Hints:
Elements: E1 3-9, H1 16-24, E2 30-34, H2 39-44, E3 55-59, E4 65-68, H3 71-81, H4 89-115, H5 119-147, E5 153-158, E6 161-166
Parallel strand pairs: 1-2
Antiparallel strand pairs: 1-3, 3-4, 5-6
Amino acid sequence: xxxxxxxxxxxxGRGELIRLIFAAANQKYEDKRIEFSDWPALKxxxxxxxxxxxxxxxxxxxxxELRMNQSQxxxxxxxxxxxxxxxxxxxxxxxxxxxDQLNDLLVDYFGILYSELDEAAKKExxxxxxxxxxxxxxxxxxxxxxxxxxRICYWKRFNNGWYxxxxxxxxxYSSRDANGF
Length: 181
């Protein structure tokens, strides 16, 4: 049996989607959380494929190892591994579309949060994001849920955030922690 180890900062961020997929699959894994003060030494260690986190380390039953960075690639790998990637190529593609859209949303949000140095401008941009960008994007998800009455579709409160579930596929766990919104 394979064993899994996820290394990420001591917080949700880009590691949370991966943790949700492990939880949905009821798969045991080592959740190694590091502090920001540990990051420079880890980055300099040369053990990270792209010198970024999260890092997933997989020890397969044949003793081979897989080391991966990039949260979306890790999520897609695990979703496929645990049969959470959709029932066919069309569902897999649709999951990917929703995952990528939500990733774009996070990039926009964190771009404002961490790149805007002027506090008044940051407050204004975050207000616009919350009032315009977020509702517009989430409407697409709401419309999809309404359309899919024949499937198990619902919003569920999980881990202090809102996540979208439509059957049991990886796109469902991608809507992330919405506390910051």
